[in-house]
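CORE FACILITY INTAKE
Project code: CF-77B
Contact: R.S. (postdoc)
Sample description: multi-component assembly, three entities in total
Requested service: structural model of the whole complex
Turnaround: standard
Below are the sequence entries exactly as provided by the requester. Do not edit them.
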Amino acid sequence: MPGASRYRDCDTVLLPAFPDQNEMRTWLERQNYLIDYTLAALLRRKTRNLGLLLVYTLLVFLFASVLLLSQGLRREAATLMQDAPELIVQKLNAGRHDLLPAAWLDTLRGIRGVSAVRGRLWGYYYDPAVKANYTLMVAPERGLTADAIMVGATLARVREVGVGDYLSLRAANGQPLPLKITALLDSTSELLSADLLLLSESAFHQLFQPPADTYTDAVLTVRNPREARTIAGKITLALPASRPILRAEILRTYDALFNWREGIVFLTLGTLLLAFLILAWDKAAGLSAEEKREIGILKAIGWETGDILRMKLWEGTLISLTAFLTGYALAYVQVFYGGARLFAPVLKGWAVLYPEFRLTPAVDLQQLLVLLAVTVLPYIVATLIPGWRAAIADPDAVMRG
Amino acid sequence: MLITPALVALHLIALCVSGALLLASGFAWTLLRHWDIASGSELQIRLERRTYLVSTLLGFVLGAELLSLLLFVHSAESLSSQFVGAMCATGVLNINAFGFPTLLLKIALFFLAALWLLLNRVDQQGHDYPLVRVKYALLLAIMPLALLELLLQSAYFLGLKPEVITSCCGSLFSAEGQGAAAELAGWPVRPALLAFYGMAGLLLGSGAALWRWPALGALFAAISGLTFVVAIAAIIAFLSLYVYENPNHHCPFCLLKAGYDYVGYALYLPLFAATAAGLGAGLLAPCRHIASLRRVMPGEMRWLTGVALAGFGAFYVLATALILRSNLILLG
Amino acid sequence: MIELSAVSKIFHQGQPNECRALCAVSLTLQRGGMTVFKGPSGSGKTTLLTLVGALARPTSGRISLDGRLLSNLPERFLTEVRRHTFGFVFQQFNLIRGLSVLENVMLPAYPLGRPHRELTQAAQALLERFGLDGKTASRVEWLSGGEAQRTALARALINDPAVLIADEPTANLDSALSGEVLALLGELAAQGRTVLISSHDPRVCSAAPVTRLIELHDGHIVGDYAC
C-alpha cells in the first residue's frame, strides 16, 4: 500500500535525531525553498512592497549619513589636532581670556619637563563684506614681510581674491590696512584653514594695536607627552592666573560637540522613525485578501505555523538587507564623494565659511551596530506581531470557506 | 546627560527588549493558569498558538541582547576620550556604580534567553510539550531582569557627566581611571595560567564523562559556567597582556578593537556560545526521564556537549596561539 | 485505520453564536476504498473531514490513526502527521496564483526539505500522469477548470499520502469533467489509497468506484451504507 511505509517513517521525522548530516541538509534545503517562495511572493506584490522598501532605504540613508558624516568630521579633527601643541597656556582675568605678559614665558620655561615655549599672537576679524569671521594668526615660521599675508582657499574664494591681490582690513584705529596676498594655504587641511589668514607680527600690531610685550597665549612643548597633565598642574601652581589647556581636552571637547550634535539630529530623525514604524506595522498587519488566502492554502496543504513564521522572517530579512545595504551605500557615496550636503550645516556649523573638503572614507563597526539598532531592530519589532497573527491562521479555514 | 547615537540606540534596544518580555510574560501568566494539553477547547488552541509568538519574541530578545552587549562595550570604548583618566572601556564603565552591573545584566539576559530557547527547542519535540510550565515560569523570572537592565542602564547613562574644558582646569583634578578588575589584574600569571589550563582539563574530562553518564549534566553545566568565569579572569589577568604586548594593559574590551584585528570577537563568540550550550546541557539533563522526550534527549545532549566542547576548544586553541605568538614574555 | 469516538466540534465556544458542527460522532474508516460523506450544506460533513484529515482538533472526543491518538496532539505535531498521511483537494482548487503549475504541485513538500532535483522529478512525473506535462511552466491562472483540478490533485499526491481527502471536488466542474475527476479518484482508490470525499452531488454518490456512503445531518450520522 503506498503511503503506509511513509507513515512509519513519519515517526522519525516527528522526532528528529539531531545532529546528523542529513538533518542539516534537509534544514538548508528547507530554508532554500522558503527563500525561494518568499522572493517570488515579494515580487508578485512588487508595488505594495516597493513603497515600504523606498521609505526604509531612505530611513537607513538618513541615519547613515549623519553617522558617517560626524564620524568623518571627528576623524578629520583628530588628524588635524595631531600637529597641534601638546599644551596651551592662557592668562585669565576675571575669568576671561586675557593677553599674556611676555615675562610669563620665562616662568614657563623654568618648569621642569617643558622643553620649549613660544608666545602666539592671534585673533578674530569680522569682515562685514562677507559677514564672516576670519582667524588671524601671526606665523613667524613663514617669514612673511610686513604687508604680506597668506589666506585660506575658502576665504580667497569667497572674497574673490587671488595671489598678488590686496586685501584691505580695517585697523583698530579705523584706518584701512592694505595687505598683499602672497600665497594660498593648501586645501588638504581645509577644515581648519578655511577662514585662516596668516600675517606678520608687525602687521598684527598695526591691525589690532595690542599693548607691547604681550601675547595672545603660549604654546608649550613637553618632553614626555604622558606628563602633560602633571606639568599643567605645576603651571597652575606657578601662575595661579593661568589656564593650561591640554590637546587631549580640545579633542575631547570636539568629540563631545560632535556627539551632542549627532545625538540631537538622531532624536530629530526619531520622528521619521516613528512614522516608518507605523507604516511598517500597517503594511504587515493589513494583509491583502489574496495574501491571507495564500497563507490559508499553505497551512491547509501542510505548512506549519512555524514554517509561515520562518517565511515571514525571511521576508523581513530580505527587505531589511536590501534597504540596509542600499541606504548605507547611498549614504557612503553622499558623504564621502558627494560633499555631504545634507547634514553638513547642522553637524559642521562652526563657521559661516564652509570649507569644501573630502572626508576620508571609513566604515566603522560601532556605526553599523548603531545603524542596525535604530533601523532594522524597530522594523522587526513592528512586523513581528502582525507576522505572527498572519501565521496562526486556521489550517481548516480554506475548507470552511 | 550625554546624547550620542549609540546611547540613543541602547535605550531603544532596552525598551524593545523590556516591551517584548513584558508582552511575553503577560502571555506566560495566562498560559500558566489555563494550560491543558489534553483539551481541544478554543482557549487551549489559542494558547498553543501564542507559544509561537513567545518563542519568536525570545529569539528577538536573544538577538537584541547580543547587539546591545556589543554596542554597550563599543560605546563605552568610544566615550573614553570624553572622560579624563578613562583610557578605554573599563574606565568608562567605572565612572559610576551602574556601569558594570549593567554589563553583567546584559550578559545574564543573553544567557537566560539562550537557555530559554534551548529549553523551548527540546520542549517542542515532545508531543505533549512536557516542559511548558517550566519554560513559562522561567520566562516570568527573566522579565524583571530586563526591567532592571533598563533601569540600571538609564541610571548609568544619566550619571555620565563629562567634564569639558569650559570649566577652568576642573578636569585636571578629576580622578584617574581606577580598575574594577584590579584584583584580577593583580592575579599572578603562573597560578592564573595553571587555573586556566586546569579548567580545560576538567572540562574535557566532564564532557567525556557526560557522554558516557548522562546523569552528570549538572556537573558539566557547573564546570562550563566556571570555565566561563575563569576564561574571563584569564583574559583580564594575562591573555590581554599577551595580545597588547604590554605588561600593564589588562582591558578585556580593547580586544574588540580593529587595532587588534578584532581578535576579541574570535575569542568571545565561541566562549559565549560554548557556555550557553554547556549550561543548556546541564539544564536539560534531567529531561531525559520524560517519556515524550526519551527519544530525542540523547541526540540533544550529544549536540549540546559537542557544541560546548567545540566552542571552548576553539577558544582555548586561539588563546594558546595568541600566547605563543606574542612577543611579550611574562614567565621567565 | 482511522477511528473516531464520540467526536464533537463546537465553534465560537461560550459565545452567543456558539455552533455545534458535530455531535458525538463515532466512526471507523478502514484503509482503502472510496468513502463519500453526503449531506446538505451545514450538515457537518466538511467539519468531519477537517477532523479526520488532522486539519483541526476536536473540541471533545478521540481520534486515532493506526492506533496513534491524534486528538490531543498540538498543531505542530498534527501538521507533521497530516503532511505525510493526508493529501487534500479543495472545492475552489485553491492554487496559488502567480506561481507555475510545477511550483504549485511542489509546495506541500517545501517544509520537508526534500532535495530539489528529486522533488522536481516527482512533481513532473505526477503532472505527466495527469496529462499536464505540457503545462508545467504555465501560470495556474491560465488553466481551465479541469486542468486546475488535476493540478490540485497532483499537488495532493506530491507527498505520497495514504489518504486523499476531497472536499466537493466536482462542485465547480461540468458533468464531463466531473466524470473525469471521479475516474481519477477511483483509480487512486483502486491502487490502495484511501479516498474520502464530501459531496452533495448525486453523480458522485452514485459513481461506480464508491465503496461506502455516509450520510450526515445536523452534525449526526444518519446513514452508513456499503456500496
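Facility notes:
- Residues 42-79 of chain B form the longest helix (38 residues).
- Chain B touches chain C through 13 residues (CB under 8 Å).
Invoice: internal transfer
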